[in-house]
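Quick one: structure for this chain?
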Amino acid sequence: MRKPVLAPSLEHFLFQLSKNDEVLVTVLKGHLVIEALLVEVVQLRLFNDQPWKWSFPKKVDWCIESGYLSDEEGDAIKGLNDIRNDFAHILGHRLTFDTVFSLAGKLNNAGFIFSDETIYSDQSLSEEWYGIDGAIIEILNTIFFHLAGLLAENGGNDYSDG
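Got it. Here's what it folds into:
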């Protein structure tokens, strides 16, 4: 069952910021960028601002139903949303390397291409070489370039330069 790790406290926000919060910021910012790309994919066919009001999973589901993503790709991308939701809804949540490694494996199995197979194939080396921060950045880059390529291939904006 999901529950806060910390008791709600104003002090948590004012004085408890630490290096541990860097991954939270990376996940939130990365999630925002991925979501913006999903909206652009939706807007290849829907020419209005309604997709901005949809939940992240609804955007992914629309991309699956419209043939832009496979079920496996969509499920893997939703894994990023699960990580983001844990940060957003569980006060004091700490991301584990097991969770990050599992998502990398799911993305690989869905056909996403990583710059280094160690990220998803060797948990011990991946944790040693990349850690949580490096692995989550690699995951975000992988999803970004996958969606950016999909967008460009279908007549949308070309973000291939990142």
